[in-house]
Every structure is written in structure tokens, then in C-alpha cells.
Design a protein that fits this description.
0% strand, 5 helices, 124 residues
Length: 124
């Protein structure tokens, strides 16, 4: 009887631990990230674009990775994402995107540019 109870308790603990481990290993939504932590896909996109411009070798990979890490230390992901979106929308041109030129939005883009320059200065 005691042996069966011990087996049930142990197997119950293992099951509970397995559930906790599997739940904690799932993807974390961007809004759940700390303000200075970027999703892997955002970091990878930045590094990919950086390497396309600067060369595709190991040294450039390390420099580009360093650069996005520095940007993440300076700018919370929500601000980074917003500025990147404004830049992307602004590239379309025309009257429909004139709102992206407002001083409020331009300041967000300037903050991203400053963080990028800081990343380049520290890493390249």
C-alpha cells in the first residue's frame, strides 16, 4: 500500500514537472517580454539585413549581433517595433502616409536611428 502510494506521488510529481517544463518552454509573446528583450525573429531580421549590407562572413555576423544587442539595451522592443513600422509605412510614399511625418512619429524614428548609431559605434 505504501509502495503504491509512493509510486503515485512520484509519478504525479513527474507529471506536474513535465507540464511546468513544457509550459515554460513555449514561445513567449512579444508583449510578455521585458522591455529590453527582443524576440529572436526580430534580432534575426536585423542581423540578416545588417549582413546583407555589410558582408556575409563570420566577423560581420558577430558585429551585427553585437549591434542589435546594443540597440536592445538602449531601446525597449515596443519602441523599436513602432519605429520600424513607421519607417516601413513611410517608404510607400504618397498622401496616405503623410501622417508618419508628424513630429511625434519622427521623434520615434530618431530614437531608433540614435540607437542604431550607438550600436554601430560600439560594435563596428
Amino acid at each position: 500500500m505504501i509502495k503504491r502510494f509512493a509510486v503515485r506521488v512520484c509519478s504525479g510529481l513527474f507529471a506536474a514537472m513535465a507540464v511546468l517544463i513544457s509550459a515554460s518552454s513555449g514561445r513567449v509573446a512579444a508583449e510578455e517580454l521585458p522591455s529590453n528583450d527582443y524576440p529572436t525573429s526580430a534580432r534575426a531580421d536585423y542581423v540578416y539585413a545588417c549582413m546583407a549590407v555589410n558582408g556575409q562572413n563570420r566577423e560581420v555576423l558577430e558585429k551585427c549581433s553585437c549591434s542589435i544587442d546594443e540597440i536592445a539595451n538602449i531601446l525597449p522592443f515596443s519602441q523599436y517595433e513602432e519605429a520600424e513600422t513607421l519607417l516601413s509605412v513611410g517608404l510607400r510614399g504618397g498622401e496616405n502616409v503623410a501622417w508618419t511625418k508628424s513630429p511625434e512619429f519622427q521623434e520615434k524614428v530618431k530614437n531608433l536611428r540614435r540607437a542604431q548609431v550607438e550600436g554601430e559605434l560600439r560594435c563596428f
